[in-house]
Every structure is written in structure tokens, then in C-alpha cells.
Specification:
Blueprint (H helix, E strand, L loop, with lengths): L2 H17 L12 E4 L2 E4 L1 H18 L5 E7 L13 E7 L11 H22 L3 E2 L2 E9 L9 E3 L4 E4 L10 H23 L5 H22 L4 H11 L2 H17 L4
Parallel strand pairs: 4-6
Antiparallel strand pairs: 1-2, 3-4, 3-7, 5-6, 7-8
């Protein structure tokens, strides 16, 4: 396949991803039952999600109080698609781990990094699917604000935030253009890294820029903001993973001692 054909294929794939952001008429019928518009998590799905969550809690290996276990993200909303994940969030109180011997900012950072590491290890070492959707687990501070407009309590079997049907205006062009802009920056960094250039500063700046870009969109426009949808495009077409792999490659080279 020629480079031109690959570029056309990539653009078509990105257009398909952006198309998947459009709102559906109903929630996914493999995950939720629908009784005259009253959506409930299917019994077999709920049972399996609780089982997965319990295994994850055993994997974490320490005791703490669980306030709730929720399903969030696009599968609990009308913008679900074949690209969706089963996003399970374990809600706990990070303040429970305060010893009083270190500053609140320091211990909060340590706690967050511990749980983030645990969930990364779990998610990377498991390949669990529910009705063809991959399962991702997270630990969330109970005081953190829910940014999703659809949150279902798996533990209590009821909606925390019930999603509403909407028909948001999605500007495909601006999402594709912004996504292409970030993709080019990532490709450029990858090429410079392969050429032996030190791109550490540029890499960290780009990661921070993308994170702030998405966060600002979520806070100002929610899930359908073009910033969040651009981030989802980059995640689904593999560019976020490519960015992470560049950082890993740089670290491996830096810490290795050649013959």
C-alpha cells in the first residue's frame, strides 16, 4: 500500500470514529434492559461487573470503605458505540488514608499515584470483555465531581445521574482538523526521537497541553465538547497510545547501558 493510500485510509477511519460520537436513540440493549423508557442494568451484566470489581479490589490488596461502584462513560449514555469501554469507577474516600504526618497535598498525590498504578497494572494484565466491550477499572475519590452525564450505580442498581436524550451539534470538520494537528505533532516527536534528538521537554509539554485541552472542554462543554471528542478521536485512532509509547521508549534508552 502506498503512503498516499495509507493516508486516505487513516482519514476514512478517523471519519468513522467521529461519526460514532453521534447520539443514539436508545442505550445499548446488550447492557441495559428497557421497560417503557426505564433503563436498568441487565442482571447478568450487573452480576459480572460486581464480580470483576471484587476481583479488582482483591488485587489492590488493602482495606478501605467503598462508597459506590458505578458504570460511567459512553456505555451509560446515548453516545455509545462499538468503540466504547465498560468504565467501572470504584468510589472511595482518599482522606481515609491520611496519617497526619505529611501534608495533605503530598499524601493525596501518593494515594492517587498508588491507585493509578494499581489500575494500570490491572487493566494491562487483563483482557476482560462484557458483551464485546473491553472493561476498564478506575479508583475515584468520592469527592470528585462526576463529569459524565450518565452514571449508574452497579452497587445499588439505580441511576446516580440518568442520561437524557439529546441531539448535540457535532462539528466533524473541527474535530478532524484538531485531531490531525495533534497527530502531526505526535508523529513529528516520534520521528525526532527515532533520530536521536532529546524531545523530553517537548513531549511533556504536549502531554500537558492535550490534558488541559480536554479538561477545559469537559468543564465548559461537557462530554460533547469538541475538545473531549478530539481527545476521544486521538485515543481511538491510537495516537494517545503512540504518545505514551514514545515516552516509554525514551525512558528505556535513558536508563539502559549499551555494550
Amino acid at each position: 500500500m502506498s503512503l498516499f493510500e495509507e493516508l486516505i485510509e487513516d482519514k476514512d477511519a478517523d471519519k468513522e470514529i467521529v461519526k460514532s460520537f453521534e447520539s443514539k436513540d436508545s442505550l445499548p440493549d446488550t447492557i441495559f434492559s428497557n421497560d417503557n423508557g426505564n433503563h436498568k442494568l441487565k442482571d447478568d451484566v450487573r452480576k459480572k461487573l460486581l464480580e470483576i470489581s471484587n476481583e479488582f479490589l482483591e488485587f489492590i490488596g488493602i482495606d478501605f470503605f467503598v462508597f459506590d461502584i458505578v458504570l460511567t462513560g459512553s456505555l451509560s449514555n446515548y453516545n455509545w458505540s462499538k468503540y466504547s469501554d465498560v468504565d467501572i469507577h470504584i468510589l472511595i474516600d482518599f482522606d481515609e488514608f491520611s496519617s497526619g504526618k505529611v501534608s495533605s497535598e503530598v499524601y493525596m498525590t501518593i494515594v492517587k499515584e498508588f491507585f493509578d498504578l494499581k489500575r494500570r497494572l490491572w487493566n494491562s494484565s487483563t483482557d476482560i470483555v462484557i458483551k464485546n466491550y473491553e472493561v476498564e477499572l478506575y479508583v475515584q475519590d468520592v469527592d470528585d465531581k462526576h463529569l459524565s452525564s450518565g452514571v449508574y450505580s452497579i452497587l445499588n442498581n439505580e441511576w446516580v445521574i440518568e442520561p437524557q436524550k439529546s441531539n448535540p451539534k457535532i462539528d466533524d470538520k473541527i474535530i478532524l482538523e484538531k485531531g490531525e494537528e495533534y497527530a502531526k505533532l505526535i508523529d513529528d516527536l516520534s520521528e525526532k526521537s527515532e533520530q536521536g534528538n532529546d524531545i523530553t521537554k517537548d513531549l511533556n509539554e504536549l502531554k500537558s497541553k492535550i490534558k488541559k485541552f480536554r479538561q477545559s472542554g469537559l468543564e465548559s462543554g461537557g462530554e460533547y465538547s469538541y475538545e473531549n471528542l478530539t481527545f476521544k478521536l486521538l485515543r481511538r485512532n491510537g495516537y494517545i497510545e503512540k504518545l505514551m509509547n514514545i515516552k516509554t521508549s525514551i525512558r528505556n534508552k535513558k536508563l539502559s547501558l549499551p555494550q
